[in-house]
Amino acid sequence: xxxxxxxxxxxxxxxxxxxxxxxxxxxxxxxxxxxxxxxxxxxxxxxxxxxxxxxxxxxxxxxxxxxxxxxxxxxxxxxxxxxxxxxxxxxxxxxxxxxxxxxxxxxxxxxxxxxxxxxxxxxxxxxxxxxxxxxxxxxxxxxxxxxxxxxxxxxxxxxxxxxxxxxxxxxxxxxxxxxxxxxxxxxxxxxxxxxxxxxxxxxxxxxxxxxxxxxxxxxxxxxxxxxxxxxxxxxxxxxxxxxxxxxxxxxxxxxxxxxxxxxxxxxxxxxxxxxxxxxxxxxxxxxxxxxxxxxxxxxxxxxxxxxxxxxxxxxxxxxxxxxxxxxxxxxxxxxxxxxxxxxxxxxxxxxxxxxxxxxxxxxxxxxxxxxxxxxxxxxxxxxxxxxxxxxxxxxxxxxxxxxxxxxxxxxxxxxxxxxxxxxxxxxxxxxxxxxxxxxxxxxxxxxxxxxxxxxxxx
Length: 458
Known about the structure:
Largest sheet: 13 strands, mixed
Number of strands: 13
Structural class: alpha+beta
Helix content: 40-55%
Oligomer: single chain
Distance between the termini: 87 Å
Shape: globular
């Protein structure tokens, strides 16, 4: 055998060995990926199973707690029982949120738990204020007890299906819903029927809480005027953008329902998928509810102080009234400024707008007046029954008071209260304490949290 023949044979053998090694490595890599994917799927499935059985546990606890609240005649005992029920309902709502039930049928179940917990909390608060629970509230609590017991029974029935070896909660994700097994479909149908029953049978809940039906279904008070057409909305949006210095062409206008029905007017080239800007115009009255700009022309850079002035000037030109900055958040090269309406030297916190400024070029790139148009109305502010000095005496004497001013604050049940807003410090922390001007009661306490981008109150 010549050297050339030997070398050719050697090269072929070497290539074969290398190919085999590469194939083997590839199979090992693929196997490793498969094993990791399988392990991740199992870990996710275990999480879903835990959430499901936690949900069953919570509904059982709620059944017991609501029954105890109905049976007890002790206010002090019921404060604890109803507060515990509130926490248990929040736990159940969290468990529902953990399940991969990516279909509209679970929306009512989550709302039910939110309202149930909120209702229990409102009753516990009444008892803590030495206010007795009314007969109507007792009847509502009894109805909710029955609905919760039925819900627990339905979930227990689903347990049998969920324990089938062929069932996996992971199959309920949107990627897998086209190929559901009969066992899995039975569970989906079970959740759907439970949700439909809650939709049909649960009473309307009106109480002092953020999830009360009268709060959820609130009509925007600041939207006035006649209906406008899509073309009229587009013209209003075009004029609004032109006044801000933008020269965009209107692309299309689409109707969009929500808390405030609007026309979404889009700007940009007709053949572009991404819009350069968008403006929300209310279908009633043609009010500019929001605006956002994705791409802005060049301009002069601004510092934070100049950006605040730019936001204030912009809002002043809207003609909505007098506004004052109440907070801000800086992210990257953008500054978001919150401003609230001022009426008779009183800060009206519910009537708030947000303005976003580009610090790179000074342009207004965002505007949101949804809260303003939801809450704004003509208000007759009450007379103060206590003086500022009396309000100062009602706060914790450890609080070092720095500023006092009048403010109208929103409560969770949509009520508004005129208060003395007392800003002070305890140690290194900053607090706002709100004292009702009519009753002298403490309505709210907020802690100011400093972040890199700004401040927020909790």
